[in-house]
Design brief:
By secondary structure, the protein is mostly beta strands. The protein has a domain of 227 residues: Porin (Beta Barrel), CATH 2.40.160. The protein has 2 helices and 23 strands. The protein has a 16-stranded antiparallel barrel. A two-stranded antiparallel sheet has the order 17-18. The longest helix is centred in the N-terminal third of the chain and has 15 residues. The radius of gyration is 23 Å and the shape is globular. It starts with a helix and ends with a strand.
Length: 429
């Protein structure tokens, strides 16, 4: 990790001291030049943009790129420096960077009513490399680090390789649709999103007239999380998950709809029979983005499944892929979960836009009574609301303000909520 950071910093220093040149440089020259951001006539921009993850509010192409001799490769080193100020009203959440509705405290110590915090941990540095650009054998590599580890320690965000239509590494599942995620200052985003990086391989070809259709199939290796009964134990998962989708574009690629599916095998040990038991989890999802009129557009997602809690923002790590089957102490069952979000974005000017988002997640655990004292504290559902406004001062500097609201309800009827105000300053280069 230290070596990666050292390479990034050294390249940045070299870049800063290099002379900016025009696009008319000879192809046999290896030079550092400024990338014309959002300019589709700039080959370097287009190439690096295609290789980057299309995550909202994250500049995916650096301001400078190293051009290899004869145009055989492009190397971009970039960073997004993001500073936020956060003010929680009510039940303060444990982390200033994540507004996780499942983490809203159900009990608050007397006197704890509000909290102000500051963080720059969401800042990231990244390396975007493309070899043999524009040809059939184009190979891309992307590595991104943020500082969300303990005490601002560097933490791997994304790391993958791209060859033709194949992506392999540590990235987002194709069961999700990161390009349809709404813009938020909150790093977590809508509580229903499947937006959690993990080991993956995916094949995603485009086809049809003008490439307006796309399909994908892959394998995922996410974390498995269950709640054991008295006579069950967790065992190693043997089979990776299989996500797939079909997607249709329109409006020149500005609008699309994606239909996704997921199949996964989950294993646990029945200690009464001394046998491993497997359960088939599954999920279906629809998502997309729709230009409406003028500067107004909408993004949306709806999802339903059983045993897919690890893929849902709010339920990941909560032990809800498998849960005990009522009074039977040796059996686990798949947890039914569903949720979705809807978001509207309005572009007032080329530099100013606002977004409003509502998201809902529910875990249906109907194998025990709501009043059961054993399971009463179990998560039942949560709501998430975000409203924000962003202003691009220039191509490098962006500011924003946001209001977040979250409400969690347990099976015993107890509930708690939190209100958060936050402001952001982001510099990208």
């Amino acid at each position: 990790m230290k070596h990666i950071i050292a390479v990034c910093l050294s390249t940045l220093a070299l870049t800063a001291g290099a002379q900016t040149v025009t696009d008319s440089v000879p192809r046999d020259s290896g030079l550092v030049r400024m990338v014309r951001y959002n300019d589709t006539t700039d080959v370097a921009y287009v190439t690096l943009h295609e290789n980057a993850p299309h995550v909202v509010n994250l500049k995916d192409v650096p301001r400078f790129a190293v051009l290899g001799k004869e145009g055989r490769f492009y190397i971009g080193i970039g960073a997004n420096i993001k500073a936020i100020g956060v003010y929680d009203i009510g039940n303060p959440l444990p982390d200033a960077n994540y507004f996780i509705t499942s983490a809203i405290p159900m009990d608050t110590r007397p006197g704890n009513k509000a909290q102000f915090r500051f963080s720059a941990a969401q800042s990231n540095v990244y390396m975007n490399v493309v070899a043999l650009p524009g040809g059939e054998n184009q190979l891309g590599a992307y590595v991104s680090l943020n500082f969300l580890g303990k005490n601002y320690a560097p933490k791997l965000h994304l790391a993958y390789l791209k060859y033709r239509n194949i992506t392999a590494g540590y990235s987002y599942t194709i069961f999700g649709d990161v390009a349809a995620a709404p813009a938020t200052i909150d790093f977590e985003g809508p509580n229903a999103m499947p937006f959690i990086p993990h080991g993956m391989i995916a094949y995603e070809p485009r086809f049809g007239r003008d490439g307006m259709w796309q399909a994908g199939v892959g394998i995922d290796m996410p974390e498995y999380s269950c709640t054991n009964a008295a006579r069950t134990e967790t065992v190693t998962q043997r089979v990776p998950d299989i996500p797939f989708y079909i997607q249709r574009y329109w409006a020149g690629g500005k609008g699309w709809v994606r239909l996704s599916g997921m199949i996964r095998n989950l294993y646990y040990r029945n200690m009464e029979s001394n046998r491993n038991i497997d359960k088939v989890g599954w999920g279906v999802k629809v998502s997309g983005t729709t230009p409406i009129a003028g500067g107004l557009s909408a993004s949306y997602m709806a999802m339903y499944g059983q045993g897919i809690a690890s893929y849902i923002q709010d339920l990941n790590g909560e032990g809800m892929d498998l849960m005990p089957m009522g009074s039977d102490t040796s059996r686990l069952g798949l947890t039914e979960a569903w949720g979705g979000y809807a978001s509207l974005q309005y572009q007032f000017t080329p530099k100013l836009f606002a977004t409003a988002t509502y998201s809902h997640v529910r875990a249906n655990v109907d194998r025990f009574d709501d009043a059961d004292s054993t399971w009463g504290s179990t998560y039942k559902y949560a709501q998430y609301v975000a409203a924000n406004m962003f202003y691009n001062i220039n191509s490098i500097v962006q500011v924003g303000v946001e209001y977040d609201y979250g409400r969690r309800v347990n099976y015993d009827g107890r509930q708690a909520h939190d209100n958060r105000l936050q402001a952001m300053l982001q510099v990208s280069f």
